Give the backbone structure.
Amino acid sequence: MKTDTRNQPGWAPPMEFDPAAAMPLPPDQEADGAIPLDGHILPPRRRGRGAAKLLVLSLAALVLAAIGFDTADLVTRAFAWSPWAGGALAALAAMAVGSLCVMTGREALAWRRLRRVDGLRQHAIRLLRTGGTGAEAKGLRRDVQALYQHRPALTPALRELDAAITDAHDARETLVLTDRILLAPVDAAAYRLVVAASRDVAVGTALSPAALLDAALVLWRNMRLVREIATLYAARPGLIGSARLVRRMAENIGVAGIAGGGDGLVVDMLGGTLAAALSARLGQGMINGLLTARIGLTAMHLCRPLPFPGDRQPGLDDIRKELLRLPRQVL
Amino acid sequence: MAGIISGLEDRGARAVDGLAQLAARFSGGTLRLGVTGLRRAGKTVFITSLLHNLLQAGRLPFLDVMAQGRFIGARLLAQPDGAIPRFDYENHLAALTAASPDWPHATRAVSEIRVALKFRPAGLVRRRLGGVGTLNLDIIDYPGEWLLDLPMLGQDYATWSAQTLSLMQTEPRLSLAGAFHAALTAVDPGGPADETAARHLAGLYTDFLRACRDSNVGLSLLQPGRFLEPGEMEGAPILTFCPLPPGSAEGRSGTLAGLMAERFEGYKDKVVRRFFRDHFARLDRQIVLVDLLSALNAGEPGMEDLRRSLSATMESFRHGQRSWLNWLGGARVDRVLFAATKADHVAAPQHAALTRLMEGLMEDRMRQIRFDGAAMKSLSLASVKCTDSVLTRHEGRELACVQGIPRGRTQPTVIFPGELPDSHLGVGAAVEDRFRFTDFQPPPGLGRDGRGLPNIRLDQALEFLIGDRLA
């Protein structure tokens, strides 16, 4: 015997309404942009305004206040001793504050540019998913073009893009053309950077005399690679920007579908082990080189103003081949 | 007995075609592109624009071989079949790029052209081995009227007569066929085979077909096509037949019906089958150009006629995946592109609707082709882009319009042709106040920038049709 639903609270009898009063169902907000497409970067996470953040901010404020008080104290004491010394110290303090301001401003600018690239990519993903008219994609294309306006090497590509796109292209076609004409040469350059970095790391690891030294080398080379790629695609990232990039990369290193035959770290490791059978150092070099390559490819995904089209995602294949050629070159 | 022999012969010919296609594929050298489309669908302009863009390596950013910079160049070559006139590319282009540009004249006979494309292969192995690849593209141009003969291949005289006469019993054909109907009641199909009567009837029937073609109601199912565009067969006795009402006299020789049936079979054998065998039997790729907008102008009867004509025509082609084993079954078309032409007559935001409308119209045929295993795609294109999409304000609403020079005028103007319907069903007969798609002139100064004729999605069409052979 089932319970009679009529007795439950909130029950309504069947009835008829005037269609004029009906409103369309609001679209499902969750469905839009929640799940990344295969091989796409996760949208930037809205970071919690949690206790950790409050702690960091308050500590930073405390340190700043302490330094400020100490400096003020120092300057007053110096003035009491001699106006010359006081003046010099005050000037030094002013210079420090000024340069700090300039640096902060630059960081903020670089940070904004990186964020804008993120925004462009999200917009592009949305447009690619929903489709739309060419006019909707025009602003996006202009923004992407503006990123590369001051690169002499890309001037022909920019001109070609302007000539190729007509008013008859829809949003998807506009984005695909932008991708192919403007970003393809940048992709190729970035890929060369990644290959070079992974080779450096592989050789460096194989040849370094101490474990600590090669750890430092790998760290330094990876950071440099990320900065190089970010500079190539969008803007020099700056300190905080780099930190944020690294952080986002940590989130995405598994997500960014690094396409290519025999996908996955396991295969890379196996390749490394095979080389390791020949030489332990060489094997380590291979593994470090491939890890660097993965980091570089993730950075490419992250810094690109448009998502990689499915068929043009950079793969590890060429890098693996390049690394396997290394022993011959070195010996 | 004769049927069996001709069947065997057919099968033998088909196997030869299949083998030839296989051989051509093996050598990788040539590709036959079938440009199919009814009258005024834009075949000639399509071919001209395609050739111009390939020769100039022009506006084709979606063609991978161009985008990747692997394209070396194109050149017109002597066509393989010396008995057919060459496609008059230079004159068609001259008409389009003249000081007062106009569209090429209606095509009156078959012509052929071959263009050789040179490119660097994409694959590492092929690049190392060969260095440079060449693809010969063979294209045929012909009057669209003739295409409608193809469905007749599968019919006998009685079936064709019945079908044609029943079509003539409905508007808008009925009012155009008055004279022919009147003459038809006066003759006895079972009477003696009188040459004068046959000639008279065929003449009236041809007049009826002409009236249909010239009327503005957009009738496209007009058979037989040679009556309208006789080509080199002008005045041949084989062209003097017409549908007759069914009667007991069918097939009996010596009667008028017998004579007509004989000529019908002769027409099928000597004209249609030859046309098909010579030009369509060995197609590798096919593009179907559909002039949806003219049909829409004619309302639901026009759309229905278009659907029926295209569906019936497509039946003659053999679609399917090619494989090593099925060459015995004949050559097969393994890629079919349905293209709604003259996309520049509507504003860019409506292109998607145009494509959808065509997909709806050709749904059955497309499903069949997909089932047969051929790759298929549909898009809307304009071989020569004559208009720009602009926005205007009308009663507080933004309307996407097209700006161009309508035919017969000299100054550009902005036109809102109306919103495309969602479906070809329920369009209704009177559509004057819903949409009016205007024909435009080619814009002045075409091709002066040396970049190939401006077009809409010609590159995507080419990428689908031949892109895989340029890899």
